[in-house]
Amino acid sequence: MNDSTERVDPALAAGNRRPLAGYRAQHFQWEVREGVATVTLNRPERKNPLTFDSYAELRDLFGQLKYATDVHAVVVTGAGGNFCSGGDVHEIIGPLVRLKAPELLMFTRMTGDLVKAMRACPQPIVAAVDGVCAGAGAIVAMASDLRLGTARSKTAFLFNRVGLAGCDMGACAMLPRIVGQGRASELLYTGRALGGEEGERWGFFNRLAAPEALLEEAQALARQLVEGPTFANGITKTMLHQEWAMTIEQAIEAEAQAQALCMLTQDFTRAYEAFVARQKPKFEGN
Fold this sequence. Notes:
single chain, alpha/beta, 2-enoyl-CoA Hydratase, Chain A, domain 1, 2 domains, 6-stranded mixed β-sheet, 3-stranded mixed β-sheet, 12 helices, 9 strands
């Protein structure tokens, strides 16, 4: 089986490095400013549902981000006061009921590959969640590194409400690590909506913002991350993900190796020299 995170020869990877500010998205809005890329799901009249095409383009774009030279953090949001209502009922759900098992497995693997690509890209991802955040939309928020919500946001892993299991796109692995096993079980068994204030108490949201300030605060948080040591931030994201499957002993050794690598960067030297000079370090990501 092909894996979207398959190994790439280092020489080829270096050749693939390029800016993505000029990328022209077909199925959502894409903008890069000051090292922060903003993905805006933009079908507000339907609460921004995903289609086969938008799933695939998001998967491919997050796969390209590991080679981007000008993107150091990502914000994902939705237009029109909602985040994402999940898979489009008419463009995805309707066709799925007519497919055979092999084609259905191709689809579910493709949607899972989007989550793999989000977790594999080195840039921290900030989800700005307002209004409806359901089904696959809840998964995209879950797969992000940080989540900002609003008091009116409603996050629902509603798969069982359409006759499906809650184990979709990694939810049974990732959601318990965010909110705890019991709370994840409740959300996945019932499909009920998690309100914004409850989501903040449970730890699903890092914090809440006013709806009119949500995107601005998410982008400000992303810019704060960009001002940090972006290479080291990428290592942090990698280790946060990989250490799920490690013992404590394995994790300590892996972190020793990762930290030694970071100590070879110029940013580490810049931090020391700035400390000696009693100045704030200016990191450059190398």
